[in-house]
Design goal:
Layout lengths: L2 E8 L16 H11 L4 E5 H6 L9 E4 L13 E4 L3 H12 L3 E3 L3 H9 L5 E7 L10 H5 L4 E7 L2 E7 L1
Parallel strand pairs: 1-5, 1-6, 2-3, 2-5, 3-4
Antiparallel strand pairs: 6-8, 7-8
Length: about 160
């Protein structure tokens, strides 16, 4: 698959806790997350994700979609700040860096790209965490795909959804 979106949520759909996805992550999710990043040509995120998550170092080029002119991860020499739509940034990233793009953006960008048919695969981690912030209906995200598989590791459910 060339374009994969990665998302971690708590069992109740919480997408963050304490302004970070680390608050809803698990050891199993973190391991899968780091492994996934080593297999792509580029990571694409939004400006809000760049401001709240640790992106000072990445194993591959990092594209940040933002209207701001200030790079929130200026210390990352592999970061690129683009004022483009999510679809435009995805297309440009494929042209510049290669076909394997990992979307680690927030839910609004991920849902926008899914609804435009631009995500080939959704890797969704559901951890036992509850009581976090910005909940989403993660089951409805899975329903946007034709099929999905489920693998459980420790207390984390890993869904891989494709069309």
């Amino acid at each position: 698959m060339s374009t994969v979106a990665s998302l971690v949520v708590g069992r109740d759909g919480s997408t963050s806790k304490g302004n970070s996805s680390n608050g809803v992550s698990s050891d199993a999710d973190r391991s899968a997350f780091l492994n996934r990043r080593r297999k792509v040509d580029c990571i694409l995120i939004g400006g809000n994700t760049a401001r709240h998550e640790p992106y000072k170092q990445t194993p591959v080029p990092l594209v940040i979609i933002s209207r701001s002119h200030i790079n929130p991860v200026a210390g990352n020499d592999m970061s690129h700040l683009w004022n483009l739509s999510a679809a435009q940034a995805l297309s440009k990233a494929k042209e510049q860096f290669g076909e394997k793009i990992l979307i680690e953006a927030g839910t609004s960008i991920i849902i926008e790209l899914i609804d435009q048919g631009l995500i080939d695969q959704l890797d969704l981690s559901v951890t036992p965490v509850t009581g976090g912030d910005h909940p989403i209906d993660w089951r409805s995200l899975l329903e946007k795909f034709a099929r999905h598989t489920l693998v459980s590791v420790d207390d984390t459910d890993f869904y891989c959804a494709t069309n």
